């Protein structure tokens, strides 16, 4: 890394605190990431010096706010190689981005008997919008299965995607199994059948270099808060021809060109979809997050996280009675690691780890169909980011061993 890990941790003041008398180890990055000083300072600076509404005023502050807001859009476009900033729509997050595709593209193009193909490992936000669209339209929702190790079954993908398929929508990285799905290959299969490919990038964009044109996805969704940015800002990338053909989803200020009593016309892309005052500071904060990530380099971030996985996964696999979900081969596993300790509810395990200062998540991770597929009610989940190190990994392993020892004589 260009920046040393030590200096990176110093950029995140929140990490420097004790929780339950222990130095905090934050391993809940798949839920949300911490914010470096540079992002918080960008928000501060905007509100202290430049705050105004965008695209409306001719005064200096309005011009500054507009310039920074649109510069942030350009940064997002460059970060995922979108080609043009008109292909970048600001949303509230991945959930809203995916809902927008279903509400606009889906509503306009899906008819009775059409097929929508997703997988068993989808987050609810890449499942329920399609499920509800299919119910509304009498379309057929189909699921791609998984191999034993939790990777996507590509032979099944080829069976499920047919000439009736109109939309394929898959997580690029699973928020439970930690697998990377072959989005480029899926896009190629979808396109051979005349379907569009949607990528849920919530767990990929923060952790690896992404080139949406190379992936040849038609839409791609992600959240600012999972990549150092503020909560409340997200992105929907779409190909120009699709976005141009799509009707707006919401109506009001900002998105109109001309309004008459009985008809109106819309602004050009991307503003056609952004009704009302947008999350201006959120976009500016996301821009600052992208600057920070780019300074380190996404390839370096990916490599550092892979090094941690190579280090920690064998240690976790060596713990008796600890079930790890997803691939056992570290080269197939990202820094999202879900697990259960035999005989202990994951919430109790997460509480025990918190007592050791180690923050992990427990629950169904908004993936109830996946829990059913795995035949478990819930799991604990540790998720690493580039500001974590091997010491954090050791603390996780030690805390699990301590919990195991503690509960050995306990209630279960
Ligand atoms: N998809 C995946 C794979 C996710 O991990 C998440 C967040 N856990 C989402 C979608 C939804 O993201 P958000 O809550 O930021 O809209």
Automatic annotation (TrEMBL):
- Function summary: Catalyzes the removal of elemental sulfur and selenium atoms from L-cysteine, L-cystine, L-selenocysteine, and L-selenocystine to produce L-alanine.
Q: Which domain of life is it from?
A: Bacteria
Q: Which reaction does it catalyse?
A: (sulfur carrier)-H + L-cysteine = (sulfur carrier)-SH + L-alanine
Q: What is this protein called?
A: Cysteine desulfurase
- Coiled-coil ranges from the UniProt annotation: none
Transferase listed as a keyword: yes
Gene3D superfamilies linked to this entry: Aspartate Aminotransferase, domain 1 (3.90.1150.10), Type I PLP-dependent aspartate aminotransferase-like (Major domain) (3.40.640.10)
Cofactors needed by this protein, per the record, are: pyridoxal 5'-phosphate
Q: Which keywords are on file for this protein?
A: Pyridoxal phosphate, Transferase
Q: Which GO terms describe its biological process?
A: cysteine metabolic process
- This entry's Enzyme Commission designation comes to 2.8.1.7
Identify its protein family: Belongs to the class-V pyridoxal-phosphate-dependent aminotransferase family. Csd subfamily.
Aminotransferase class V domain: residues covered? 25-396
A GO molecular function term, named singly, is: cysteine desulfurase activity
Q: Identify the InterPro entries for this entry.
A: Aminotrans_V_dom, Aminotrans_V_PyrdxlP_BS, Cys_dSase_SufS, Cysteine_dSase, PyrdxlP-dep_Trfase, PyrdxlP-dep_Trfase_major, PyrdxlP-dep_Trfase_small
The family database entries (Pfam families) matched by this protein are listed as: Aminotran_5
């Amino acid at each position: 890394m260009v920046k040393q890990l030590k200096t990176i941790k110093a950029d995140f003041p929140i990490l420097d605190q004790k929780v339950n008398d222990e130095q905090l180890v934050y391993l809940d990055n798949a839920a949300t990431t911490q914010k470096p000083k540079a992002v918080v300072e960008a928000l501060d600076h905007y509100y202290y010096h430049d705050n105004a509404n965008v695209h409306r005023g001719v005064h200096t502050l309005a011009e500054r706010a507009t310039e920074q807001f649109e510069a942030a859009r350009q940064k997002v476009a460059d970060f995922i190689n979108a080609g043009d900033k008109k292909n970048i729509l600001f949303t509230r997050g991945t959930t809203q981005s995916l809902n927008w595709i279903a509400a606009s593209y889906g509503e306009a193009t899906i008819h009775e008997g059409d097929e929508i193909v997703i997988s068993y490992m989808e987050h609810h936000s890449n499942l329920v919008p399609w499920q509800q669209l299919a119910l509304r339209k009498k379309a057929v929702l189909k699921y791609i299965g998984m191999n034993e190790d939790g990777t996507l079954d590509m032979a099944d993908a080829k069976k499920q995607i047919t000439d009736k398929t109109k939309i394929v929508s898959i997580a690029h990285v699973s928020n439970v199994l930690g697998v990377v799905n072959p989005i480029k290959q899926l896009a190629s299969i979808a396109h051979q059948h005349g379907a569009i490919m949607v990528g849920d990038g919530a767990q990929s964009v923060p952790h690896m270099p992404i080139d949406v044109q190379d992936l040849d996805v038609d839409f791609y969704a992600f959240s600012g808060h999972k990549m150092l940015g503020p909560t409340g800002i997200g992105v929907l990338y779409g190909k120009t021809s699709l976005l141009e053909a799509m009707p707006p989803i919401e109506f009001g200020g900002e998105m109109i060109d001309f309004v008459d009593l009985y008809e109106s016309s819309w602004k050009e892309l991307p503003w056609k979809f952004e009704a009302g005052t947008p999350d201006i500071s959120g976009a500016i904060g996301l821009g600052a997050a992208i600057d920070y990530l780019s300074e380190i380099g996404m390839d370096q971030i990916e490599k550092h996280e892979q090094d941690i996985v190579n280090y920690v996964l064998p240690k976790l696999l060596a713990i008796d009675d600890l079930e790890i979900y997803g691939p056992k081969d570290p080269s197939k596993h990202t820094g999202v690691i879900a697990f259960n300790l035999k005989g202990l509810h994951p919430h109790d395990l997460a509480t025990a780890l918190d007592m050791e200062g180690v923050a992990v998540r427990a629950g169904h991770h908004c993936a109830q169909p996946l829990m059913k597929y795995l035949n478990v009610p819930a799991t604990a989940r540790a998720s690493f980011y580039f500001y974590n190190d091997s010491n954090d990994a050791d603390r996780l392993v030690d805390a699990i061993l301590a919990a195991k020892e503690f509960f050995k004589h306990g209630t279960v």
